[in-house]
Write a structure and sequence with these properties.
There is one protein chain. By secondary structure, the protein is of the alpha+beta class. The chain has two domains: 398 residues, Deoxyribonuclease I, Chain A (4-Layer Sandwich), CATH 3.60.10.10; 98 residues, OB fold (Dihydrolipoamide Acetyltransferase, E2P) (Beta Barrel), CATH 2.40.50.330.
């Protein structure tokens, strides 16, 4: 027997032996469009001419780096993942992730992706296989993989299934179910064996457009699907240990945030709420962990300079009793790491698919910790420190990011070394204060020159674009703030609105 064969067997044994733990961590992470390399994608930006092995390598490594920040590099024990591509050409159907990982144990992710062109068998591997390999390379070991039974087909209203939910777990998986909902991504259910205690995990990715009332109707259907299944579980065991996780495309205070909604899927239909003391009395069977944090810390995504809470970790009341598994009180946190996956304002440093791929995701991951209860007393409840009992009328509707905060971080290009090329990942998303002469080119496109490199100025507002053109024609120089970003492989300076322009008439 060769050393390589022996190593593969040892890896296999480590993988199948059940973990014995007293505490464990759970992460919910929307990885923002994690696609495979088969050359077929329902999103145009992930076709073979725009999405290469280099993109996948950076994407997989960056996701692994984020998860490596948990538990001193060991990584989380359970991860609920959103936006993993549904394999559009499932040639590898039947191939088990564990078998493939063992077969490539001697190779790194980079080595596997450096061959050009990629062998068809390699290119056809599902996206989740590559993420598992990146986690293994990062020293996180191997995980059990749970995927839904969700084919890449279109359903009503031309909605096509492009991405799916995935669960990876260090604990043995004892049962898997896929719950389909009309015009929506399927909800994935997995039952895990944690030290002999059952834990049911639901991976969710509900319909997007949190403020859209038509899409809320689809999210309410998602919520009914999930609620019906929970009712079945709680009918058998009212204190079953259950975690609901993922991107619900709903805020924890959804109904209050959008008062034109008479009810919302997450609040009224599902029953997500923030009164922690209601669990023991049985007045509520679910608790949303966002209420563990002070208001100023609630946020995992940014849209139009407002913090959102689209990602969720919601736990059942059974995780508060003294039997089986138990939530570790006040352990919930947002994995926003300064100068890593968060920009200078603490916002998500999202994935940028360009010539120089970089970034992570437009959502921060969420983390919570759990343990095996010290007793077997089903009728006793764990003590709470500062339990949340929010007054629904006083739940804040939205937390914004002020323009003053944004612009206070501005970088002055002239203060950087004269030959600095800002077209690099470390500069992406940075705010600049620019005093320069602008030029108006073809079709009225306005550009400025920074260290010998031309950057297009862009604003989503027509009035601001017109203002930029007028200033470029009438001033030798003018001052403005802008954010450096990439659009369709082109580096540009973005001005969200006219308030970013400092020149007055």
């Amino acid at each position: 027997m060769t050393i390589r064969h022996l190593a593969a067997i040892l890896v296999l044994l480590v993988f199948i032996l059940p973990a014995r733990v007293s505490g464990f961590s759970v992460v919910a992470y929307n990885v923002e469009n994690f696609f495979d390399l088969d050359g077929t994608a329902s999103y145009e930006d992930y076709g073979p001419d725009k999405y290469t092995p280099r993109h996948l390598l950076v994407k997989a490594r960056n996701a692994a780096k984020v998860l490596s920040t948990v538990d001193a590099g060991r990584g989380p024990d359970v991860v609920i993942l959103n936006e993993i591509e549904i394999d559009q050409t499932p040639d590898a159907k039947g191939l088990k992730a564990m078998d493939w990982l063992v077969s490539v144990n001697a190779l790194t992710l980079e080595k596997l992706l450096c061959t050009s062109p990629l062998p068809p068998a390699t290119a056809s591997l599902p996206a989740e296989f590559w993420l598992l390999k990146a986690l293994e390379d990062a020293g996180l070991g191997q995980y059990h993989l749970v995927v839904p039974d969700e084919p890449p087909v279109c359903h009503q209203e031309s909605h096509c299934r492009s991405v799916k939910n995935v669960i990876i777990s260090r604990f043995r998986v004892t049962a898997v179910k896929t719950h389909h909902t009309l015009n929506a991504r399927a909800i994935l259910e997995a039952q895990l064996d944690v030290n002999g205690h059952p834990l049911t995990v639901f991976a969710n990715h509900w319909k997007s457009g949190a403020g859209d009332i038509d899409n809320e109707r689809i999210r309410m259907a998602n919520a009914r699907t999930l609620r019906d299944r929970l009712n079945e579980i709680f009918k058998q065991d009212p204190t079953a240990d259950v975690i609901l996780a993922g991107d619900f495309n709903s805020h924890y205070n959804q109904t209050l945030r959008y008062p034109n909604f008479k009810k919302s899927g997450i609040n009224q239909v599902l029953g997500s709420q923030g009164n922690e003391t209601a669990l023991e009395s049985g007045k509520a069977d679910l608790y949303n962990l966002w209420f563990e944090l002070p208001v100023e810390k609630r946020g995992s995504d940014i849209y139009q300079n407002e913090w959102g809470t689209l990602m969720h970790l919601i736990v059942s009341r059974g995780l508060y009793d003294n039997k089986g598994l138990q939530y570790q009180d006040n352990s919930f946190e947002v994995l926003a790491i300064p100068a890593f996956n968060a920009d200078s304002l603490g916002r998500p440093l999202r994935w940028s698919r360009g010539t120089n791929p970089s970034g992570f995701s437009d959502h921060f991951p969420l983390l919570a910790r759990f343990r095996v209860a010290e007793t077997k007393c089903k009728d006793q409840w764990m003590p709470l420190t500062n339990p949340s009992t929010p007054d629904p009328e006083n739940i804040p509707l939205v937390r914004g990011v002020s323009l003053k905060e944004i612009l206070a971080t501005a970088i002055i290009p002239a203060n950087e070394p004269p030959n600095t090329d800002f077209r690099k990942p470390e500069w992406l998303g940075k705010i600049f204060l620019i005093d320069a002469q602008a030029q108006v080119g073809k079709r009225g496109v306005v550009t400025v020159n920074l260290n010998g490199i031309s950057y297009k100025l862009f604003s989503p507002e027509k009035d601001t674009r017109d203002r930029l053109r007028d200033l470029a024609k009438s001033r030798s120089n003018f001052r403005f703030h802008a954010q450096l970003n990439i659009f369709k492989d082109e580096w540009q300076l973005l001005l969200p609105n006219a308030d970013w322009i400092l020149e007055k008439d």
